[in-house]
Amino acid sequence: MAKRGGFAGGMPGNMNNLMKQAQRMQRQMEEAQKELEEKEITATAGGGAVEVTVSGKREVTKVKLSEEVVDPDDIEMLEDLIMAATNEALRQLEEISASSMSKITGGIGGGLGGLPF
Fold it and tell me: Residue 60 — left, alpha, or beta (φ > 0 → left; ψ -120 to 50 → alpha)?
């Protein structure tokens, strides 16, 4: 009579290997996240008139303004330039983060239903 249920043909060994790979991938992702947090990304707007630096923790760490961009009669332009430079720095950071994680996961992260590895 055929055995029903359980793992056929050595599945427990394959499951152990899969778990080890998942744990290794999780460690690699944690290391990559730590490396990313130590990075700083700088972006500019207005031809370099505004420069914003963000950390890998997604915090603005520096804002540098050229004197010519500081016009009390046009505060709105300065606000727009700061926002544009900040958004560009954050976009670049996200791109670096996604690229780093893709190298670890081999591009399978999106299809795992939100699993943490």
Answer: beta
Residue in 17, 13, 32 with CA at minimum distance from that of residue 117: 32
- In angstroms, what CA-CA distances link 38 with 54, 55, 93? 11, 7, 11
User: How does pLDDT run along the chain (117 residues), one tens digit per residue?
Assistant: 555 555 555 556 788 888 888 888 889 888 888 888 889 999 999 999 999 999 999 999 999 999 999 999 999 999 999 999 999 999 999 999 888 888 887 766 554 545 554
The contacts of residue 60 (CB under 8 Å, 6+ apart) are: 52, 53, 54, 86
Q: Record the pTM.
A: 0.68
Q: How far apart are CA 90 and CA 101, in angstroms?
A: 16
Rounded to whole angstroms, the Cα distance separating 14 from 9 reads 10
Q: How far apart are the first and last CA of the chain?
A: 41
